[in-house]
Amino acid sequence: MSDGPMNIGEAARASGVSAKMIRHYENIGLISRAARSASGYRRYSGNDVHTLRFVRQARNLGFSIRQIEELLGLWRNQRRPSRRVKALAMAHAEALDTRIRELQAMKRTLRDLAAHCHGDERPECPILERLATGEPPGERIR
């Protein structure tokens, strides 16, 4: 990583966050607006890149933007109680467990539907019938 200021492309390469996402994070206030050169180009410091890496890692773990804002605040606060960070991480893990169960139920339903579909030239298709009836995903097919 360069010691001096970087343009957005360099910051993107150094952080692993695309230039488009860097601009988005600035626009929504997740990260501070970049300093500008005399010609108006964004300039990023090593600290900016460090923050972008933090955001990328948090996004890779599935944290929401709101959660990342909270994590950034805790990261920057050297007097933070670690229990707040742990509570946020554990709440996110619980939400992921819930989502995993929901996804597994969807997968079971899709496999069940596919098992009852002949997949041939006949027009009858339990997959389309289920979508058309709007039955809840957990319902067994007939």
Strand order of the largest sheet: 1-2
Helix content: 55-70%
Count up the helices. 6
Which class do the helix and strand fractions yield? Answer: mainly alpha
Please report which band the strand proportion falls in: under 5%, 5-15%, 15-25%, 25-35%, 35-45% or over 45%. under 5%
State the name of the first-level CATH class of the largest domain. Mainly Alpha
Biggest β-sheet description: 2 strands, antiparallel
Radius of gyration computed on alpha carbons: 23 Å
**If you average the pLDDT, what whole number results?**
91
Distance between the termini: 61 Å
The low-confidence parts are none
Under CATH, the topology of the largest domain is which? Multidrug-efflux Transporter Regulator, Chain: A, Domain 2
In total, how many domains does the architecture comprise? 2
Order of helices and strands: HHEEHHHH
Number of strands: 2
> What's the shape?
elongated
Indicate the CATH architecture of the largest domain: Orthogonal Bundle
